[in-house]
Amino acid sequence: MPLYRALPVLSLAALLTASTLLAYRMHKERVFPYPPFNELIFNISEKFQNLPSFSRPLGSEGGFRDFGGLLLGLRRLTADIAWLSVLQYYGSHEAAGHEEDHESRQAFGAGRYAALKDMVMRTVRLDPHFHFAYLYGAGSLAFNLDRYDEALELLQDGIQRNPNYWKFRLYVAAIVWKKKGEYDNMIPLLEEAIAYPDCPTLVKSSLANIHKARKNYARALQIWLNVLETEHSDAVYRQQAEDQIGQLRGLLGL
Amino acid sequence: MKLSNILPLARYTFVGSFRSKIFLVLILFGVLLLLSSFLLSILGQEQEIRVLTDLGLASIEILALFTSIFLMVNLILEQIEQRTLYLVLTRSVSRAEYLLGNYFGTLAAIFACVVLMTLLHAGILLFKGWDIRAEGLVYFASVFTSFEKIVLVSALGLFFSIFSTSAVSALVFTIFLWISGHFAVELKFLAGRLEDGALKTLFKGIYYLVPHFHYLNARDIWISYSSQFGRMIAEGTLYTALYSAAALLLAHLSFRKKEF
Question: Rounded to two decimals, what is the model's pTM?
Fold first, then answer.
């Protein structure tokens, strides 16, 4: 066969070899920074099989949707959708007959939200670099629901998968102090945590409530003013901040 | 091969794409999807910008994917059906020039569509208070690597449309490769779990052979490899060029043996 006729085939072989070698190099040099699909949490509602379907945690079924998202290469968006399910679940009333209470955000945390940790875990399995999900989940579990061990489990998972993200360690320390009831040690850590822009408003509101309970009205007022200034997306928090600011100003005689 | 033959063909295909109803419907759908992401992202509360960014980037990529697959798969088959192909090939245009002209013309149309959607999306993000100085680099790198995926999958789509002669099977093959390309890393994981044998070798072989789309997801790899980000983009671009060239060459080899 003359060489010019074999040239396309030879070129094809060269291109395929070069691209495979490059793929091999990329594969050898870098670990794909996500857990394999068998670590995904497919069906949280399995734990709630004994409940009637309408009582099972909202948005807890969706493992196959997650898998489909990964197949299409939409990992972050799939994690976002799982995150919206967490917000939907934790933002809805769990306890039957519980009336909405605009006086306090605690109305939303009035239930037990048994699936909360698993639902946050499902989100961060999809995207372990979703730091806010870890912080929000651990903050809700520890400061709203008093489930310290679950909060610490979540943060340990976060530390294992994001060893350089030091803020998780700050939250761990604060939660451990709260668990021991040592508020004097916990408060400085939370004060440090709320100074960062990626701190969930939930943690700010928890700290403001702690200051208020300890009669440190001036600091509580400062935090609520900060919430009002920085929180633009959640009307409930804004309403709560406005109410608290009014109350605290009254207490301070301003 | 003459550039003077390729360019008019590419220009003709580019203009022709904008006359295609499928193309216009997909663009309209993309714009609507981006506008709806504006509303959906509100549900993300404190993570509104993240949700809006991810939803928009995914919309741009998926819309560009569908546009490229539909256009590429129908490109040659439609021209055979309408017999316009014979007219061109009777001129002094080689089959390779014909293929490249059509390929680059279609890619140019998709690129214009991606630019349009990106501008709209970035505008929405800026309106929502997005910090372009902090996140702009990753955002535009993500759009760039998404387009690289489209370049690669378009070359594969073109090959399958010539190789399979049926639009449906070409469509299925191309979508299958898109999915397996994103799932490649899981194939490697599965291979690692198997005991040595034919199946393990097969899985490993498939892993290296299918396009590695997961390494072209800039938004996913940025956080872990930010210090090597430039190198990763460069390697991804080289990989796209090599793989696409191989797919185009395969398309050419199939096309030159075709009798009309």
Answer: 0.84
Token couple for A19: 């691209």
Bridge partners, residue A43, by sequence:
A61
Task: State the smallest CA–CA distance between residue A72 and chain B in angstroms.
Answer: 6
Q: What is the pLDDT of residue A95?
A: 53
Q: What percent of chain B has pLDDT over 90?
A: 34
Q: Cβ contacts (< 8 Å) between A19 and chain B: which residues?
A: 239, 242-243, 246
| pLDDT at A156 (0 to 100) | 93
- List the domain range (segments joined by +) for residue B197: 3-256
Task: Report, as an integer, the average pLDDT of A108-131.
Answer: 85
Confidence of residue B179 (pLDDT cuts 50, 70, 90): very high
| DSSP for B17-68, written as a single string | HHH-HHHHHHHHHHHHHHHHHHHHGGGGGGGHHHHHHHHHHHHHHHHHHHHH
In chain B, what is the straight-line distance between the N-terminal and C-terminal CA atoms, in Å? Answer: 22
How many folded domains does chain B comprise? 1
**CB proximity list for A96: less than 8 A, separation 6 or greater:** none
Q: What single letter denotes the amino acid at residue B118?
A: T
> Are B212 and A23 within 8 A, CB to CB?
yes
Q: Give B-chain residues touching A76 at CB under 8 angstroms.
A: 54, 58, 219-220
Backbone angles phi and psi of B5, in degrees to 5:
-90, -35
Q: Which residues of B27-58 are buried (b: 16+ CB within 10 A; e: fewer)?
A: beebbebbeebbebbebbbbbbbbbbbbbbbb
List, in order, residues 6 or more apart from B143 with CB less than 8 Å away.
Answer: B57, B60, B114, B118
Q: What's the farthest any 2 CA atoms get from each other in chain B?
A: 62
Helix H or strand E encompassing A101:
none
Closest CA to B165 of B259, B99, B84, B88: B259
Q: How far apart are CA A212 and CA A237, in angstroms?
A: 17
CB contact under 8 A, A201 and B235: no
The answer for residues whose C-beta is within 8 angstroms of residue B23's C-beta and 6 or more apart is: B17, B67, B70, B71, B109, B113
